Amino acid sequence: MNRPEDEMIVPEGWGFVETIDRRDFLRLTSTGLLVVFAVKPPEGAMRPVWNFAEQQRTPPDFNAFLHIGANGRVTLLVGKIEMGQGIITGLPQIVAEELNVPLEMVDCVMGDTDLCPFDSGTFGSLSVWRLGPILHAAAAEARAVLVQLASEKLGVPVADLSVKDGVVVSKTDANKKATYGELAGGKKIERRFEGKAALDKVSEYTIIGKSYPRRDAVEKVTGKAMYAGDIAPPNAMHARIVRPPAHGASITAIDTSAAEKLPGVRIVKDGELVAVLHAHRDEADKALKLVKTTVTPSPNTLDHENIFAHLEEVAVEKRPAGAAGDVAAGEKAATQVVAAKYLKGYVAHSPMETHTAIAAVGADGRVTVWASTQTPYPLQTQVARALKFAPEKVRVITPFVGGGFGGKSANAQGVEAARLAVAAGVPVRVAWSRDEEFFYDTFDPAAVISIRAGLDASKRIVLWDNEITGAGGRGAGMFYDVPNHRTVTKGSWSGNQGAMHPFAVGPWRAPGANANVWARESHIDALAAKVGMDPVEFRLLNLQNPRMRRVLDACAKKFGWTPKPGPSKRGYGVAIGEDAGTYVANMAEVKVDAATGAIKVIRVVCAQDMGVVVNPEGAMQQMEGCIMMGLGYTLAEEARFKNGEVLDKNFGSYTLPKFSWMPKIETMLIDNPDLPSQGGGEPAIVSMGAVIANAVFDATGVRLTQLPMTPTRVKAALGKK
Amino acid sequence: MKPIAFTLNGVARSVTVEEDRDLLWVLRDDLGFTGTKFGCGASFCGACTVLVDGKEVRSCVTPIRSVAGKKVVTVEGLAKGDKLTPVQEAFIEHVGFQCGYCTSGMVIGATALLAANPKPTREQIIRGLERHLCRCGAHQRVVAAVESAAQKMAGGKS
Question: What's the CATH code, domain B86-157?
Fold first, then answer.
């Protein structure tokens, strides 16, 4: 299932990444075994559409590397970052498995552009799914080299050697042995990954598949974990930037005279960028409030109500996103047709850590930027371009990231910090306030999705005509057996057509798929109801894909689903989806309060087939997180705006899922050792909108076709019943 | 500016700052205690939560003058050396976090909750943590962690 080309995340700055001097890498690893991983991955490891690096001037020959030192410690260096998803534990597990060393022997360095090889960014559930196979192969290669060295040192043929816990031992004479440290130390060995070494067999895994505890746990519960805002170079100052009040508004004059009178305040300007600086954040806040601006208001007339008509009006260019058969033939074959239009508003990323960066110019003239970013390399390029520096004069270091969800693929704060640090001559920290975060977020875009579907007399879907405005094609792939279907997109989730959106939009956890899966699975449910069939039985009737059937069956068993056509008044819902190569099925139970319109989600069951699971607990944490986060866009989250102003500025009016919303969450992983590891960060969120909407229909007989399903909308829909 | 004296994590401190400064930023910028996080600046999210005389407060809206003579405890002040508190241990055991950014406030909130009510019901835990936001969705594990910490602490006393 290839993603359409427009589904790639191409952060600004990606197209012109320059090669880091290779000597910088080698300097750090002057002795020991260094395995350089080819960008060109093993066959099947990366789909061509994602192998974007090859089309760019990116470093030609590596995207991760591995070093084994004289002390036997293994260091994995990757350009990925840790934002809660747990790869700081999962990726070393892969390396430890193939190298036959205990997990404790593997260190992991992440997201530092001086130390780690190029990586386009941490998004798309790609880390284990797409980088994983390269790590498997490279670690196996390293093991093969070490065994070869041991063979020479011990005078034992390779075939007679085995490895356990980082020690190579003769199978016939246990006294003949050598540790990895002894073999690698004092030498300079560089091996290019060739992908020829044999991988461990899945059935023999001892480290992959085990729920090792998270490596970041102690730091995170003791407050020692460092995030970008916690980095404090000497003399650092906080910057608060003078901002326009609305998108499209322009500042014509700035009066900083009152702010300047506060002790310790500095005003720094770099072109259009004007900031008040203070050593203390709260005093910088105070000073910013004293800055007076003259503003030309935004001419933008869009708001969260009229946006849907606007999108349909401006996004006109159609792009095919999958088709089979002939929809005209489908129309003829259909005995019943159901058509509906689904609307979804803008959703904010709202990581608890706002976009934060601190930049410092070193004595050598290089700029270091510590940033909360999912894309350290693109940020390096963005900073270099903004400063007119050579890229090697910019280093980006990524400490722990306090949540990303796609939003930290955009890096404006890093560029702002760097520009201000250069202009001010002192280290400058930019940590967006919560209202800046809402204002400059790259929102999950509003979308309009129209589906016209038809059934024949045997209750089989014979027609599916799907037009998606604003969400792109991710998640809309057709895995039901529909002979005649057609999906077209108008504008991707990155808003690539003209003036679609009043502000920036971008990737939001499983971009576009939340909207598309919600619309499709709502519509499938509507078809089931139309023919009076149980929604699970209806799906199975129209679904041959054995992998998806197995996931749905497993979910139904765990949930205790008994067939009954909707609306059964039980408040049960089902939805299935595919994302990042992973198949997912959700079932939910809800109660709807007819008087208030409030939806209470009582229980959510989620079954997921993600192939080989590296760390089952970690995978389940991602599933649980997807379910909780999914409740937000389903029930409450919708950014409101008018005349370019984002009206939601903090969590008082924009509500995130809370403890009291928590349903009973039950997750299960389908055993599928024959399939390599697939993506895990996003799949379980894609079906959340539909599973709740379908459960609400089952409870009330009313189908809501707009997200979020706020109490007001639920009441209105019940009133029309 | 007059000195403002208080106890921070058991150590006497005195700061001479504008008395309306936010406790959060005095902790972070003046004293270097960065475990306490900035999340929303308006007491909605709970990332900046600290203990003042044993009760949880939002340090982002707490003027420094109001802690004069009081005992302030941040997340750094919970463990005694390497010895974590039962709440911290339970957060690790049940993995009550993902990105970890809300965790300092969450751990402090849970500590205050159990100090006030050592045997909370599940409902009381949920209500007690309601004003702590977690975007990653670790809620179920946080509740499990607090339940387990309560049990351990009760066991420890007997």
Answer: 1.10.150.120
DSSP for A155-175, written as a single string: T--GGGEEEETTEEEESS-TT
A318 φ/ψ angles, rounded to the nearest 5 degrees? -95, 140
Of A604, A599, A578, A576, whose CA–CA distance to A589 is shortest? A604
Q: Tell me how far apart the alpha carbons of residues B128 and A8 are, in angstroms, rounded to a whole number.
A: 42
- Whether domain B3-77 has CATH 3.40.50.300: the reply is no
A82-97 residue pLDDT tens: 999 999 999 999 999 9
Contact in structure between A193 and A338 (CB atoms under 8 Å): no
**Rounded to 5 degrees, what are φ and ψ at A148?**
-60, -45
Whether complex ipTM tops 0.90: yes
pLDDT for A38: 47
Helix or strand or coil: residue A29?
A: coil
Contact at 8 Å (CB) between A541 and A533? yes
Mutate to test the interface with A, among B17, B99, B103, B111 (most CBs of A within 10 A): B99
Q: Give the SS3 label for residue A184.
A: helix
Domain A5-222 has CATH 2.40.50.690: no
pTM: 0.94
What is the model's pLDDT at position A250?
A: 96
Contact pairs from chain A to chain B, CB under 8 Å: 175
Q: Which residues in chain A are closer than 8 Å to B126, comparing Cβ atoms?
A: 659-660, 662
pLDDT value, residue A40: 45
User: Token pair for residue A468?
Assistant: 């998606």
Average pLDDT over residues A547-554: 98
Tokens for A365, please give them: 């003239």
CA dist A38 and A60 (Å) reads 8
